[in-house]
Amino acid sequence: MQHSPKLAILQSLDAMDAVQMEEVLTYIRSVLNKADRTVSYQIFKREAMKEIAQALKNNKTGMQPKAA
Fold first, then answer.
1. Sign for the pseudo-dihedral over CA of 55, 57, 62, 63
2. Is 53 helix (H, G, I), strand (E, B) or coil?
3. Contact criterion met (CB below 8 Å) for 46 and 53
């Protein structure tokens, strides 16, 4: 009988003690937090680049930047 990856994960979780489970949860949380920071950074970077492009465009045309 072939086991699915999901079943294999569940079986390995059943075999863990409380300390091992806590380590796995800590690891998963750290991976998820890194992903959140990465997405936030990308959004921040994209917005900053838009502002820089707008400032350069305004500078070329001699316009004053609009107030935020």
1. negative
2. helix
3. no
Q: Is the pLDDT of residue 65 over 60?
A: no
> How far apart are alpha carbons 44 and 63 in whole angstroms?
25
Domain spans of the chain?
17-61
Please write the tens of the pLDDT for every residue from 1-56. Answer: 456 888 888 888 888 888 888 888 888 888 877 777 777 888 888 999 999 888 88
Residue 47: which of 21, 24, 68, 26 has the closest Cα?
68
Q: Which structure tokens are listed for 60?
A: 């070329």
Task: Determine the 3-state secondary structure of 17 from DSSP.
Answer: coil
The CA distance from 34 to 27, in Å, is: 11
